[in-house]
Fold these 2 entries.
Entry 1:
Amino acid sequence: MSSTTDISRRGFLKIAGLGGTALYLGVFPSATGAEATIVNAGQAAYQSIELNAWVYIDTAGKVTFVDHRAEMGQGSYHSVSQILAEELEVDLNDVNIIFGQGDKKYGSQVTGGSSTIRMNYKNFLKLTATAREMLIAAAAAQWGVAAAECYAEHGHVIHKKSGKKAHYGELVVAASKLTPPKDVKLKKRSEYRLIGKPLKRLDTPLKTNGTAIFGLDKRVPGMVFAAVERNPRLRGKVKSFDASAALKVPGVQKVFKIKMLVFKTYREGVAVVANSTYAAFQGKKALKVEWDDSGFEHINTADIYARQLENVKTKEGLFLKKQGDPDAALAKSAQKLDLIYQTPYQSHSPIEPLNCVAHYQGDKVEVWGPIQAPDWIQDALSEEMGLKRENVIVNMTFLGGGFGRKAFMDYPHEAAVISKEINAPVQVVWTREDEMTQGPYRPGITYRCEASINNGDIDALKFRMSGQNNDHWRDPKNKQQANRSTSEGFLQPYYDSIKNISFAEVIFETPIPSMWWRSVYASTNGFAYESFLDEVAHAAGKDPMDLRRQYLTDERSQKLLDKMEEISGWKNRKKNEGFGVAITECFASTVGQIVKVSRKAGGKVKIDKVWAVMDCGWYVNPDIVQAQVEGAIVMGLGAATMHEITFTDGLVDQKNYHSYQMPRIYDIPPIEVHIMENAEDAGGVGEPGLPSFAPALTNAIFDLTGTRIRKLPFKMDEV
Amino acid sequence: MKNTHTKITSGVIVMALLLVSLVAFSFKKDGANVSDYMAVPDKKKDSIASVKAFQKVYSVLMSPRCMNCHPKGDVPLQGEDSHLHQMMPQRGKDGKGLYAMKCTNCHQPENTPGLHMPPGHKDWHLPPADMKMVFEGKTAHELAKQLVDPKQNGGKDLKKLVEHADDGLVKTGWNPGEGLKKPPLTHAEFKKSWIEWIEKGAYAPAP
Amino acid sequence: MIKLTINGKEHTLDADPEMPLLWAIRDLAGLTGTKFGCGVAQCGACMVHLDGDAVRSCVTKIKRAVGKQVITIEGLSDNNNHPVQQAWAEIDVPQCGYCHSGQIMAAAVLLRDNPNPTDADIDIAMAGNICRCGTYPRIRKAIHTAAELQQKSLK
């Protein structure tokens, strides 16, 4: 494979040069993933022909694929390509891959909700199959044979009888004049030569020798560096600053006040521009800034949880879902459970700190960086800076992790503002301390879970949560509605088998910026809901797995349970041997996990093994699916047992990895991942492996020790 | 409460006497620049004063700045609460760490500025695996005995032991990284007590 | 002016001797494979070899590197073919990939000092490198693979 890692689409087109007629299969998938409309736009474009928004072929036959979504570890760079190559009949090793700039033609580019594959794969298959059929038709016409006698293979069209062969490059111009066929035949899964195979990731070689270009590695001519001292409280202002010491730092060029967009509010800070990252950091340290922190609450962690607890104890909240009448059932219940669970605030802490390169040039601005949502950056910067949307040019690099944080617009906006001020391209680099102390964070939440049990059966489930709603940052109108993610993580089939269920949110707000974090609310809901079901099972005198069997009655769930039991030896376990189970669903995939714990010599609890079963329906690359579940479990382990963000007087207590400790290699138990094979539609892969880990672990600890953990994080050493 | 100042185990006395005479012998031999450490004639031996001095020495040696690099296991300790060092760096044979986790991969020749940054010294290391010189968990009695035992103190005779008060890495305890506390005595006070303890007979407090 | 030898090539840099080696390598020598992760010697993303030791370049000042050999990820092998790099590709270790320059530099030191590491040795050697994507199970597997590859290449 010869791969281009840092050529923007713009650069690519420039290389391709102007001239020639082009085939353009326009496709405008909606954000919901509705089926694409395929038209031959017939535009004169470039010698390198845009077969569709994702595929270019030049007249020499060179194929270029576009990954229009962020590559942040989850595998879009490879997986998008593995799908595109399938029906197009090209070899992955012959393909160049580039990242798509922000452009409406791709539909949504927001790389979140584990949506890249599940929202696009049908379009990709149809588009590439259509392009292939047009190339075959062009060849057949040239050769004067029936298209049905021809087939495509390895980037060529071949006539079966005569053995005539033409590479795609020879055919693209002729193909562009054809009308795209309707209803092309797509392969069955059993016919795939690429999809479903554990192919080696195309980005791996770039990531083993330092050649992959991440945001921090982006360089443009004339670029300077900047660091920003931001008010550590989001809503605070800059009262005054003294730049005299900073300006004496060798290499520091300019110091000035800035403000950057954070959803609908602004963060204020002081920017230090210098000739190296080091000089900018030194200048930042030398700054003296006086903050104005008046007019908003400086909150403490203890107050957050006290208020949330008060909320769920005294208020019904806004109902997101309600079926039957849980209150009536609870009122006359023979056996009731009423329990509180709490989860912490968490930092994303992607290993690549936030950074962005921006170049403001009067009527346009170009940015390069680790960006999860180029389209949102276009929206925000055009609106905020008074530019035409198409004049906000957004280039994605590889992302050194994202987990939701890099879908924010604050850091690109900040870079653009600084570039405008100095009239030069600039790279703004956040320190780890900046990233960890500024947020936004996954919100910490308090849950009240109630159940009515009659004769060992679940009669009613009533769930209430109180925690910050991320949607409130985007639009104040959302404050009139229950958090749409209140039930995220909870399995759909329960609604069919349990008569009375309700989910409600009691609104809770703080000045702390909050935001989605890998698996979003499922990451915290899952702990409460699946711990609670385990407690219900014990109260009802049932095996926790049998309880799931009783209420997850659909065939798909039953098969998942079969698999979980089979691989973990669940049925052969001894009483209180230390097995725990949890199952959660989010982004259209379900993941069941079993954790086995035991006591070390000395009595402390350790994790012996984690088994995970992923049901994501249609999938591309089993090795990437497994890797994502492994990684999600490791991230879940950290969030459950190692780190949390806490606040004192409105400031974050954790500054860097010494106080926000990550799992390290010696913390990791053996993890075994299985993928369900079925004919279901594609579900998400990057996030759904996370939520079920924490409850499976704490349920296992209860099984072994009788100690019930209802608040995260906890320390394994202290169980 | 036991009177720890007067109960002295006979074994230690014998050991200490032996060592003092060895020191005296070695001084005769090289005799250079020893005014600070001049061996004290037997008649000035004073078990009470020696033990009293050692109690001060002990308060320093058991402070995090000294004890953290004299752990009972093979992982150094860290911080004022002497928790196991994050990342579990291992002692290694020579006390300098292992593989990609050598002490000096993070600990520079000098302190790195900033809170929670690695403190530094050019020879940053733990005692080697064959001479662990454990402080952690030792009573004053155990530590005193250990310190004067050449088999446990790195082969130091009393002269070398006296000199050790001015060892570069020992003195690093009084140049801690930002935000870290110094030992409870100044280095001068420590050195005075250290020498006094040795000169007055290197007696160990009662067990 | 400070002279540094990076990947066998001499660089003359106009730099403050107190500048961390990390920024000299990235911003002045223009080698961006070495990463900034935490700046406080916690994560290992910035590891380079300094006369064979896997130092963290974010806290190693350039004055310490004068007269020594600095090897970065770009200089570990000629063709992405150090046994550790080959094993990383074989096992498909990286996800986002950002920490892996450091992970690979750490693993290379382990395999040099201990050609046949156990799981316990791997835990010791790799303890200083954080992977937020959680690729640890594959790092472990790949180091065992790299050990095999290294032994084969020696035969």
Note: The longest strand of chain B covers residues 77-78.
Entry 2:
Amino acid sequence: MSQQVLEARELSKTFVSGGEPIAVFSGVSVALAAGQSLALVGRSGSGKSTLLNLLCGLERPDGGVISLLGERFDSREAEAPRQWTQRWARLRRGRIGVMFQEANLMPALSLLDNVRLRARLAEQPLEPCQSWLERLGIGELAERYPDQVSGGQRQRAALAMVFAMNPDLILADEPTGSLDRRTAEEVTAELFRLQAETGVALILATHDAELADQCQVTLDLAHGAADLTPGASAGPAP
Amino acid sequence: MTLFTALFSHYRRHPLQLAALALMILVATTLWSGVRQLTEQARTSLAQSEQVMAGRQQVVRVDGAGLTVGDFAVLRRAGVCVMPWLEVPRPDAVGLVIGIDPLAAHCFAEEGAPFGTPGGSRPARLDGKPFVDIAEAARLARQLPAAETPPALVLIAADDTLAAALPSGYRLVSVSTGPDTGELGESFLLNLDALGILVLLITALLLRSVYRLGIVQRRDSFALLQRFGVPLARLRRLLILEILVLSALCIGPGLWAGGWLAQSIGQGFGQSLQGLFDAPLYASPGHWGEPALIMMTVVLLACLADFLVPVRRSHAPRLRSYPLAGGLLVTGLVLALLGPSLVLLFVAVAMVFAGVGLLAPLLIQWLAERAASMASDPLRRWRHRELAVMARQLALPVVALQFTLAMVLAVQALVTTFEDTFDRWLGQRLAAELYVPVPSGQPAEPAARWLAAQPGLQQGGAWHRVIRGRARVAVGDKAARPVDLLAFAPVSSLVSDWDFLATDGNPWEALARQDAVLVNEQLARRLGVGIGDRLALEIAGSPLALPVAGIYADYGRPAAEVLVSGALLPAGFEAEFESISITPGGLSREALVGGLKQVWQVPELTLRDNAEIRALAGGVFDQTFLLTRAMSILTLVLAAIALLIMGWVFFTGRAWYFRLLATWGLSRREVAAQLTRLSVGLTASVALLALPLGIWLTWVLVHRINPLAFGWSLPMAVYPGFWVELIGLSLLIGLGIALLMGRQLRAGAALPVSASSLTGGER
Amino acid sequence: MRRTMLVLLWMVLAGCSQEPEQAGFAGLAESVAEGMAEGMAEGGGEGGQLFYLQPGPDTGLTLPEDLGTHPRHRIEWWYLTANLRTESGEPLGLQWTQFRQALLPREAGSIPEPATWPLEAAWMAHAAVSWNGKHVFAERLARGDVGNAGAAARPFSVWLDQWQLESVSEDQWRLQVQAENFSYDLTLTINDQPVAHGIDGFSAKSDSAQGSMYFSYVDIAISGTVTFEDQSLAVEGRGWFDREWSSQFLKTGQQGWDWFALHLDSGDKLMAFRLREEGNPFVSGTWIPAAGQARPLDSGQLALSVIEHREGVPVRWRIEVPAQGVNLELSAPPGNYRNQGLYPYWESPVDVSGSHTGEGYMELTGYR
């Protein structure tokens, strides 16, 4: 059995709006091993992005425990916020690749420099950066700036950045959401190809059912937290 | 919701931007209109005293007593055409009013409208300040605090009045309009004008940057409105209306505040005008229409220039402006070095500033790009690239801050140099412990004989008579010019500490031997006189030709002056003022005062000590630069605030990317450090670039403008301590931006709606 | 000129929207006074509560006090015209006038402190000499109460700067004027009692009860020296002295006036004036027979008509007083007798012919 990368149990998150607490979701559990892929589906506002944020420590859950790459984050333990954020920051810096729908690149840097910056932060060698761009089919665009290439090319560069850091887990939030269908398919194909090659675990938030189908497991937040069946929705892949 | 409220809703969401715009307009109006009001007033005053008083004579009493209305009646009854003239300070306000009697002025009217009435056949109409009816002036004079010297009545005589026509007990003297100050007063005002324009320029830059920021942020809503069918022309009209309303709302209070500013520093300004150029500051009514119109135009131009010139996609300076900027800079530098007139110098300064203003952001950008391409560390490269983007995005406020820093630096250097020099000079001049003005109507000689006979004075004491009057000086075959005359008798040890700008051997010995004269710097400059040149002097009608043995600095006065030995004064010489400088040595102060009282047979003796005079002089000179200082500091504050706002807004636009750094695992502290390095990097480079500009401006002020504007030069000095302070201030501004941004980051940053639609996505 | 002032004054009082320049030295002084209104108000405005007095038929004359100033009246003047002859017998005309205009009415006794440069009255003096077809004129202005201009009844004295008229004995006055191109120094011997015009000195100036107090010395023997164009001329002849004061005079629409003072060789004297206005002019005068009481003349008893104009100015006149058998033709000598001061007017000697011969003076205002 491959190595367990992530295990989250009974995660809940509440927002306060107009003085009233609103539960985004509660009791969500997720587990994922290396090389596995999980699709997070649901309507807009169902909490996909929030869950991703919890899983990479950009937000703190109101309840639940996350075990990630050997680190344990228990919301019930009174850990100092600073220490909590620092542990998460370390993980994101070297081991979790986060990718958004767009604006994943620094506009003032060329595509290659963006990849190098990400690799440098992850303390990975800088030499392979150019080859990552080439593996994603944009090697000749290395010196271009983000505003000089197409949206698809930008997302390929973002993929190159994520893979160049040699992560253990990739969290992608609608990575093809702003692309046309064909480009989206191409980028998705690259993502799955490289994921398979590198054996990294992948969580993909999407509203695209076809894209979700390409993942091994699907977690549906569509009906909100109430309809979620703990344990049944996500577990170790067969 | 109307279209206007739809447009204006932007400011409802960003009230700070609106406040910043309003503040810019208000402060710009205040500073500029305040200075303008003073210079206009001063200019009018100069013209008025020139027009009315030039070449006129006045009647005085032979016994030296002050004139009264009774003297006026006596003279008029005797058929002498005289007119009363009473200058009174306005209560709680700036300037003097001149009380005249328009009815008495009627006999002057035949001479061709001397009192500002066209046509000449009618007496003056008192339609405005500074002229008021003398009854009003007399009323104001009665309301003056008892401590103030009551204004003296002057009786101006018609030009054709002959001394023989005067009743006994009266004599004619020329109305002293002060010494021949050349163009100094005008130059001084020109200086202030230039400063005012510089401030106006800087504030216009700031205004433009803040306004453009709002426009860029509103671009999407404009596009939306256009898609809804609102024509572009209508949108523009509304924008013009918006800025018109805003400026109308702010210019009024700005003008009011400017009036208040002029009021509060005007008294001091009037004093320095009087002290420096012997020019009175008369009260004159403020004009509001013109400044308001000019200000409105400046605001509209600064904000709406884009509507007037073909719209370019990017307003950032571009590399192709290098040749233009370089050309301006080089031409300006050459012109500043060689320009013969004040106006040309100001043009030169304007060109250098324009050149620097265009080049500075490009230079920061270029340096940052270069540093980026040389950096192998991707993070450092990113930071340098960000700095380049900032330099371009914030070009206007950056340039404004640079200008202001340079201006503050130069003004500080000038003022400090001036203070130091003046202090040292005053120390030399005020070597004696006591100063005794000779009572009016009394001769000084008996006092001199008495002093010479005091054994106590010989023990560590020293004294000399100081005689002031007028003389005429000619050099070569040029026409003789009136100058101030200063004479010492005897030439005592009290003067031996004077620093000379140029000397030939021992000038005091030459002076005491009556072999030579000394001249002040003003005379040397104006007449082009050097050591050894022979001056043809005319003192009380007697000719005298002597070489110049020394040129001494004579700060804070515009007049040309020649210093001679008192022994050379002819018998007919009439001193305008006489005093005795005394260091009593072994003689007690009581004995001195008692002795002099007895010699002069007066019950009271005015005795001024060193400290008193020093304080008086210091006070006058502090006032001189009060305005300059106040303006530069206020502008600095304004520029700092503008950069702070702009920097903050810039960072807000790019907040997502800083969040991205956090997403990529940089700790909050690391992100904050990056932010700080960036903003401080920007403000520090602004300060560093301001240094050479500031030092150059100091040089121009000290070596080029000051001699032309004041008639004397100062040694050029630089104050690196102050540079450090300014750099420190820039760093503080940078830290302020970083701090504001840090708060912004903690509040969370939204993903840019579309990476290319906002300024934040620019590279 | 005096009448011009009155016209102008009337305009000011009536709030007439005539060109303010026309307000003359009165207007000038008033514009000054306006500027001071604030200050005066602060001072409690002693004069503020006082009204100007209006003269009427029952006012009556008081001498010699009425030779002095009337501070509660708005305007007054002292006015001398003289028909003189040089030693060689050439006629020489001469005029001297001094005006006072109050800006603030006040009690006769309350004199402001000169050191405050009070602006409560303005003074103006005119002097002219007409000789050999030439006419010279000078004008002086002064503010009152500071000393260089004023008038006093006892001893009688009127002065403005170096010009002055003063009594030197019971019936002798001395008039001294030094102007830029002429001067005179005359001794005036007053030979008769003053003549009160109108009703006890109240001389009506319109049909609607406006008028002034007005009396004259009409028989004055004059001798002295006139310096004219650097020639010193010994002169002798007779003069006519007017004293007049009021606070309100002419009504709107009166355009100017024509005034005559005539010495007839019969020993009779005639004063006549005409105020020009739309419709019928207001005509009035006084017949002063060589012996007996002076008689006021109204429009039914006195007729004035123009015979000839010279450059817009009526220089030949016919004056008729049918009851006295008087039918006179008046003519100004050749020349231009405009007094070109602040406010030009015509002032010339006249020759009298017709039923009587004689000489006199004519003042015409309001002609352009």
Note: Residues 172 and 189 of chain C are 5 Å apart (CA to CA).
